[in-house]
Write a structure and sequence with these properties.
The chain has 175 residues and is an alpha+beta fold. Helix content is 49%, strand content 19%. It contains eight helices and five strands; from the N terminus they run H-H-H-E-E-H-H-H-H-E-E-H-E. The chain has a three-stranded antiparallel beta sheet. It has a two-stranded antiparallel ribbon with strand order 3-4. Helix 2 packs across helix 3, helix 3 packs across helix 8 and helix 5 runs antiparallel to helix 8. The chain is globular. 26% of the residues are buried.
Length: 175
């Protein structure tokens, strides 16, 4: 077993945004294997998000994004459980990133459950349609290795509250 160094903990914390104690535990459980520790923290984030998903998220913020040239604009509502979290720097950053992503990739639905059954039935490759048109399933525009749902799960794990993308609208001049 490799010794866990402060440098390893710091690096894992920077890459995952998880707490110091969580990073230390993950590295110890992975016996110093950085990639295994990172995967452990990701799975833990998914578990935490699932546990919190039934909690009511009635607070939050409306974020705006206007693309340069003023031809595309987005309004997105991101909900959380408390107004304290709605003012949290990480929550605000996530809201801005989601608004920018919507401007760039123009999703039609928030999640696959929002796609009408008749629309989905017409699609020969339903999985590809969902990935292309559902915000939470889309590959994040700034890091295609992650989906918007992955970013959301990481934020839920870090903050400890249920967070949901409420609704959004994207405007483009002439559409």
């Amino acid at each position: 077993m490799m010794a866990t160094t402060a440098e390893d903990i710091k690096r894992l914390r920077e890459e995952t945004s998880c707490g110091v104690i969580d990073c230390k535990k993950a590295l110890e459980e992975a016996q110093g294997d950085f990639n295994k520790a990172k995967e452990h923290l990701r799975k833990r984030g998914l578990e935490m998000a699932a546990k919190k998903s039934d909690r009511l998220a009635k607070e939050g913020r409306v974020e705006t994004y206007i693309h340069s040239g003023n031809k595309i604009g987005v309004l997105v509502e991101i909900n959380c459980e408390t107004d304290f979290v709605a003012r949290n720097e990480d929550f605000c950053k996530f809201s801005r990133e989601v608004a920018l992503h919507i401007a760039a990739l123009n999703p039609k639905y928030t999640k696959k459950e929002d796609v009408p059954a008749d629309v989905l039935a017409k699609e020969p490759d339903q999985a590809a349609f969902i990935k292309a048109h559902c915000l939470l399933a889309q590959a994040y525009v700034k890091d295609p290795g992650k989906t918007i749902q992955d970013l959301l799960n990481e934020l839920v794990a870090k903050i400890g509250e249920n967070i949901v993308v409420g609704r959004f609208v994207r405007f483009k001049v002439g559409e």
